[in-house]
Write a structure and sequence with these properties.
heterodimer, A: alpha+beta, Uridine Diphospho-n-acetylenolpyruvylglucosamine Reductase, domain 2, Uridine Diphospho-n-acetylenolpyruvylglucosamine Reductase, domain 3, Enolase-like, domain 1, 5-stranded antiparallel β-sheet, 11 helices, 14 strands, globular, B: 797 residues, alpha+beta, 7-stranded mixed β-sheet, 6-stranded mixed β-sheet, 19 helices, 27% helix, 24% strand, binds flavin-adenine dinucleotide
């Protein structure tokens, strides 16, 4: 299929882009990597009147370490994340996660800003933002807002961004001492959106968690930062405690049914991920039913 | 030049010096395709060419109350908005039945729906414009008023009295029923020590060709001729059907089929939208192009499988199989597909269940019902995966029950390699199969005993791997028994014309077609070998009804076996003609001469006598120097069709080695093996790639592919994100081995190989999964084997 006719503007600066967005409101759409926008337009699921291409705005590019904070520009492509030494050194969870995002051809174009703004609940990067406690920086004509990741994702394809705002960058705290991370997902085929996934950021000391952030994805209308994780912090992990945490996780999830998996299958897989995450991070093979 | 004394009477034409037969030679069309010089239908641009977009029904079953194309007609670039009624002025409807499928019935189908739509995706109007984009814009402005009717979607209730009848004139929703009863089934079951019964469920899936269906139809009013450019497997069939329904003589229709981006049986049928495109060209007197987009492909390319089959097997204590029984049900959509019909798949299931085995006791019933879903028809390995999965599933289930190894039960029951000729329980006549030799070879390739030991070792660590084996029989090289006897004008014979050009090169026209299988390559290999001409000097022309002999095309694994033999015989005939001329020029006899490496040579010692180039110069430009009375014929044509056996059956066996994650239900394919017997192998690489490609399609069916309809008849996953095709990362290494039992029906001895991979792959995987799940006591007899299905069987969710 072909997209409906639309007007196209290549923004020259953030200010120029914001001006265009302010003038056209929700009739305009930002074009970043185009990997989600173009398919939707070609399927005529959306027919924006104006496309504002932000691809030429230099200020939106680049990965920079500023003290304890790693700043990543909205236009940073998935492929750049994957091969960035800064990301590998200071936010290895992202390096691991982005390898699960689609295929090389899509990673060469898709951007982190586009992925977060798009907010597909089965996406890897939004969950990582939650696990890592990222700050998402958006700008409108009225100025800049710094939104914690946990407040940014509002539902399926819904975020705190307004139609007149641009996501410009994200800020990530750099990895601390004793940090450990875990990433895994279940997808029918390599590169597919997950049917259940987990991005975890932890601090492990003497065989116990002193901190643990578990961000589940594809099991609700947005990534879920699990509070069940709290039960596992500063605690001796026993099978009974794991059962407890699993039950608590079950309470927090509101997964949906779709063609790949029923809600109950998603719940089941989320719990499997929880066990695998804990047993991997703590080196506790005894917790994992596979190797009983 | 390797010359050795060529005793032509002793050597077969296949092992002549410098033969290409049995060698992996690169395909002659590779460079052209890799350099982007292929010519696919979507590449074709003609002067004044218009583009058609079909407005398609959003409902599975509805009356069309009104269509208003007024607003659309006024939009820029729009040439016409045409309804089914309007198009009926130039094209007649059709009914997809064949007389040898007794009792098969269907209703008249129109190029564009008239008054009523019967599946979601059926075209209700055509919008023709100067570009595809303009036509799509305009299509959004055509308004159609529907009155929804109850949709018949569940095949299990399609025959219930309460269910509406889709075509009231037909009386019920039963399209076709076949029963078969051979031997003494009841007695055999009664005397069996163990009987196992299971229901096997097969998802509906489709072919997903890389290039969608595409047509450019060009009605030239001045010539009163229609040229159809189409990616089809059967150009002469398209010519016949187009002429028939447009009221033309066949000679008024030319079908040109250049490069085709995959077919798999999808492109061997006549689709309503393609017929509409031909008709629109005639109506509008200009070239019209139709290229299906991916959503249209999912909604209208034929679907396949979608069977529910009850199966029963009986055995004696020692594992001897006593009987098979099946009751198969399939839903084919609202019409039987034209012209090959939608009864063939169920018919094949009845034909093929139990076919590798000795038992003669076999009872079968197959019922084919109408539903308000897209049409189903023949797709790669028609019926085979179902028959194979049911047969081999039953064999493994019963073996498990009586505690016999899957290999052992097969050894005990497969037809012995020296028992041929013989017949199957359904009456199929087998010339020569090699089940035991194939199984032995397979076990060696996979190191069966070692694999079993590894499996047992890993079980202790809670790693659950499984081995699955599936023997199969494949139908290839069909004679007129397939379609011709039922009244279809689908040729089962093929023709090849070869001629020497003025520089001693060869031009070869064949009626088989190329969709990637390597038809061009195998034809050039055969012609080059038989003639003694190097392959670079053989140019193969295919896919043009004006420029090739009449024939069937490429489908049902027939190209190499039938078209290849025609090529061989044509080349032999041309060779004789060349040698006759050479004998006259050289004052020798044809018997003393041979052709090797583009030259006529002395048969005894290979001494070059005259180059073909020189011979051609004499024949074409200085015929005055030839002895009187000699009239050279440097062109020869031969046709071929098997006559002794209606089909050349082949056989093979596959094995799968995989791991099931019992906590998540995910399956990881670790390795796959195939041994098959397609008779003479013309090009080992082409055969192996046919097998591998076929296996991958079978693995797609086993694990991923399914057209998911809701209860209202809406196809809910008509896109590449939700309909999962098998991709490289999930595919295992596939090892291919061969046993060679040539058919005596032809000098070439080749049988087909195109569908063997697809025939047995899913059965091997399903058996391996059940083998892996054995400690859990869970049994799965449904494909695709999704994690959801596995977890449900394991009662984890
Ligand atoms: C076959 C395929 C498989 C895929 N698999 C996955 C997968 O497994 N996991 C996954 O996470 N993703 C997957 N994707 C999506 C891919 O990662 C996209 O790149 C990503 O979702 C969007 O990024 P983009 O830069 O392409 O954004 P675009 O497509 O350009 O834009 C997406 C949306 O975000 C808006 N937007 C973009 N940038 C900004 C900005 N700076 N400020 C405000 N709004 C903005 C756009 O207006 C649009 O609404 C897949 C895509 C394809 C085609």
């Amino acid at each position: 299929m072909k997209a409906s006719a639309f007007a196209y503007a290549r923004a020259t600066s953030i200010g120029n882009a914001l001006g265009l967005l302010a003038a056209h409101g929700d009739k305009a759409k930002v074009l970043s990597g185009g990997q989600s926008l173009m398919p939707a337009m070609n399927l005529r699921l959306i027919s924006p009147e104006l496309i504002v291409d932000i691809g030429g705005i230099g200020e939106l590019r680049g990965i920079a370490l500023k003290g304890e904070v790693l700043s990543v520009g909205a236009l940073t492509r998935h492929a750049d994340l994957l091969k960035s030494p800064e990301i590998a050194a200071h936010s290895p969870l992202l390096t691991k996660a982005v390898a699960h995002v689609a295929h090389p051809a899509i990673r060469n174009r898709g951007t982190i800003g586009g992925s977060l703004a798009h907010a597909d609940p089965a996406s890897e990067l939004p969950a990582c933002m939650l696990a890592l406690g990222a700050i998402i920086i958006v700008r409108g004509q009225a100025g800049e807002r710094r939104i914690p990741a946990k407040d940014f994702f509002r539902g399926i394809y819904e975020t705190a961004l307004s139609a007149e705002e641009l996501l410009v960058a994200i800020e990530l705290p750099v990895t601390r001492k004793n940090a450990a991370y875990f990433f895994d997902e279940f997808a029918r085929r390599h590169g597919d959106y997950a049917i259940a996934g987990l991005a975890a950021d932890a601090v492990v000391k003497d065989g116990a968690f002193t901190n643990l952030h578990l961000a589940f994805f594809a099991v609700g209308d947005r990534p879920v930062l699990s509070s069940a994780a709290c039960r596992l912090i500063d605690a001796v992990i026993t099978p009974a405690l794991m059962a407890d945490a699993s039950a608590a996780l079950d309470e927090e999830l509101e997964p949906h049914d779709d063609q790949q998996a029923t809600a109950s299958m998603r719940r089941h897989l989320a719990k499997v991920l929880l066990v695998r995450c804990v047993s991997t991070l703590l080196g506790r093979a005894d917790l994992d039913a596979r190797v009983a | 030049m390797t010359t050795r004394p060529a005793h032509r009477d002793i050597l077969s034409v296949l092992d002549r010096p410098n033969s290409y037969i049995g060698k992996t030679v690169p395909r002659p069309n590779l460079d052209r395709l890799l350099q982007g010089r292929g010519l696919y239908v979507s590449d074709i641009e003609l002067p004044r060419m218009a583009h058609v977009v079909f407005l398609r029904s959003p409902h599975a079953h509805a009356m069309i109350m009104a269509i208003d194309g007024g607003a659309a007609k006024r939009l820029p670039g729009v040439i016409a908005v045409v309804t089914g009624k309007e198009l009926a002025a130039v094209i007649t409807p059709w009914v997809g039945v064949l007389s040898h499928l007794k009792g098969l019935k269907s209703a008249p189908q129109s190029a564009i729906a008239i008054d009523r739509v019967c599946w979601q995706g059926e075209a209700v109007a055509a919008v023709v414009a100067t570009s595809r984009a303009a036509a799509e814009d305009a299509a959004e402005h055509v308004t159609v008023e529907y009155r929804e009717l109850e949709a018949v979607t569940d095949m299990r209730t399609a025959l219930d009295p309460k269910t509406p009848v889709i075509h009231s004139a037909l009386g019920d929703n039963l399209a076709f029923e076949r029963t078969h009863d051979a031997g003494q089934v009841d007695r055999a079951f009664a005397q069996s020590d163990t009987v196992v019964e299971a229901e096997f469920v097969f998802g509906r899936h489709t072919g997903v060709t890389l290039e969608p269906r595409a047509v450019v139809a060009d009605w030239n009013a001045a010539e009163a001729r229609l040229t159809i450019y189409q990616g089809t497997q059967a150009p002469h069939m398209v010519q016949n059907i187009a002429a028939l329904h447009l009221g033309l003589q066949e000679q008024q229709v030319r079908v040109v089929c250049k490069d085709v981006g995959g077919s798999f049986g999808i492109k061997v049928h006549i689709y309503a939208d393609e017929m509409a495109t031909y008709a629109l060209s005639k109506l509008l007197r200009r070239p019209v192009k139709f290229v299906a987009d991916r959503i249209e492909s999912f909604n209208t390319d034929i679907h396949a499988r979608d069977h529910r089959c009850m199966g029963r097997i009986g055995v004696e204590r020692d594992g001897t199989i006593t009987a098979f029984e099946i009751d198969d049900l399939t839903g084919i959509g609202p019409y039987s597909m034209y012209p090959r019909t939608s009864a063939i798949e169920a018919n094949q299931v009845v034909n093929l269940v139990g076919s590798p085995y000795v038992t003669k006791n076999y009872r079968a019933r197959a019922r084919v019902v109408f539903q308000n879903k897209n049409l189903m028809c023949q797709y790669r390995a028609v019926g085979h995966p179902i028959a194979c999965s049911v047969t081999e599933g039953l064999v493994d289930l019963v073996a498990m029950k009586i505690g016999v190894d899957p290999v052992e039960i097969r050894r005990r029951n497969l037809i012995a390699d020296d028992a041929y000729p013989c017949a199957s329980p359904s009456g199929l006549r087998f010339e020569k199969l090699s089940h035991h030799a194939s199984l032995d070879k397979l076990l060696g390739m996979m190191d069966y005993q070692l694999l079993r030991a590894e499996q047992a070792e890993l079980r202790k660590k809670n790693i659950h791997r499984g081995i699955g084996i599936a023997s199969f029989v494949e139908v290839t090289n069909p004679s007129a028994a397939f379609y011709g006897v039922g009244g279809a004008r689908i040729s089962s014979q093929d023709g090849v014309a070869v001629r020497l050009d003025a520089q001693g090169s060869v031009i070869c026209q064949t009626s088989i077609t190329e969709q990637g299988q390597g038809s061009e390559s195998l034809t050039a290999q055969i012609v080059g070998s038989v003639l003694g001409v190097s392959m670079e000097r053989v140019r193969v022309i295919l896919g043009d009804t004006d420029n090739t002999p009449y024939g069937g095309g490429t489908w049902a694994s027939r190209g190499a076996g039938i078209g290849g033999e025609a090529a061989l015989q044509a080349a032999k005939s041309l060779r004789k003609n060349i040698l006759d001329v050479a004998a006259a020029i050289l004052q020798s006899t044809a018997a003393e001469l041979d052709i090797v490496s583009n030259s006529v040579v002395d048969a005894d010692d290979g001494t070059p006598r005259i180059e073909l180039k020189e011979l051609a110069r004499v024949v074409y430009f200085r015929p005055d120097t030839l002895p009187p009375g000699i009239q050279p014929e440097l062109m020869a044509t031969r046709h071929f069709v098997p006559r002794e056996y209606p089909f050349a059956f082949t056989n093979g066996v596959q094995a799968s080695w995989l791991e099931v994650d019992a906590e998540t239900g995910f399956i990881k394919l670790l390795r796959h093996w195939v041994v098959e017997d397609c008779g003479t192998i013309i090009n080992p690489q082409l055969v192996d790639e046919q097998i591998r490609g076929g296996v991958v399609q079978g693995l797609g069916a086993a694990l991923f592919e399914k057209c998911i309809y809701d209860e209202r008849g809406q196809l809910t996953n008509a896109n590449m994100a939700d309909y999962l095709v098998p991709m490289a990362a999930e595919m295992p290494d596939i090892d291919v081995g061969h046993v060679v039992s040539p058919t005596a029906e032809s000098e070439l001895g080749a049988k087909g190989a195109g569908e063997a991979g697809t025939a047995g792959a899913a059965a091997a995987v399903a058996n391996a999964v059940n083998d892996a799940l054995r400690p859990f006591g869970a049994i799965v007899t449904e494909i695709p084997l999704t994690p959801q299905v596995i977890l449900t069987a394991l009662a984890r969710i």
